[in-house]
Design a protein that fits this description.
Layout (H helix, E strand, L loop, with lengths): L19 H22 L5 H16 L7 H15 L11 H35 L1 H5 L14
Length: 150
């Protein structure tokens, strides 16, 4: 005997974040590709553009990650920014204020991406459970709006 069961019953869960080591691999490989592409197209002397692109990468990766992956993502992006986006290429340096600012920007971008993704997923889950805004409050009917009333 065949029993029909609906697969769409109940609320769908919030998507699980990607494992932290996979996010860090994505950060290393993505930062390597971005910095290499940037150096090939514009040259190695554009740290502002590299920082912007790497912050976008950190934010994108943060949207699929846990909050605990944000510091590692920021450090991985900073290593490629510091090591290959500014001359001399291949040499890690530490210029106090500049590198602290870069790390803070990358960490903020990763945390922002994660927080935004959590809010979007939570809002979507809430709408799935409650039935959306139309089910919560129906529009009130006004007596003067009907074309059939004199």
């Amino acid at each position: 005997m065949i029993k029909w069961v609906s697969l769409n019953t109940g609320a769908r869960p919030v998507p699980q974040p990607i494992a932290t080591p996979l996010v860090w691999v994505g950060a290393c490989s993505g930062a390597l590709v971005l910095v290499a592409l940037l150096n090939a197209v514009f040259g190695p002397g554009r740290p502002g553009l590299a920082l912007t692109l790497l912050a976008l990468l950190a934010s994108l990766l943060g949207s699929y990650a846990r909050f605990t992956a944000a510091p590692g993502t920021a450090v991985a992006c900073w290593l490629f920014l510091n090591g290959f986006a500014i001359p001399p290429a291949g040499t890690l340096t530490w210029a106090g204020h500049r590198d602290t600012f870069w790390l803070a920007c990358l960490l903020t971008a990763a945390l922002f991406g994660t927080a935004l993704a959590r809010l979007v997923h939570a809002h979507a889950a809430y709408r799935r459970v409650t039935g959306g805004p139309a089910a919560a409050s129906p529009a009130p009917a006004h007596s003067g709006d009907s074309p059939h009333t004199p």
